[in-house]
Design brief:
The structure is a single chain. The protein is mostly helical. It has helices spanning about 5-30, 55-65. The protein has one domain (about 5-75). The protein has 2 helices and no strands. The two termini are about 25 Å apart.
Length: about 80
């Protein structure tokens, strides 16, 4: 591979990681404990999470596993 191809691949990965971090930020900021999740069955009401049902499940998983330190996943560590 040429150096140009490697640089473009790194740029693509960087943009992808940035987009995932922004999506995770929206999931975590709009967390609502009344949204449907792994331990709450509230499928009657639509999720209030900005990302939708997937965001409700992702934010619930992160907050149950890591608590408030889930926001640390937004900062890439080199």
């Amino acid at each position: 591979m040429t150096e140009s191809n490697v640089n473009k691949r790194h740029e693509f990965i960087g943009v992808l990681v940035l987009l995932l971090a922004v999506l995770l930020l929206f999931c975590l900021l709009s967390y609502n404990d009344r949204d449907p999740s792994f331990n709450a069955l509230s499928a009657v009401t639509p999720p209030q999470n900005m990302v939708g049902k997937i965001g409700a499940y992702v934010s619930d998983l992160f907050f149950q596993a890591f608590g408030m330190s889930s926001f640390m996943f937004l900062f890439p560590w080199v």
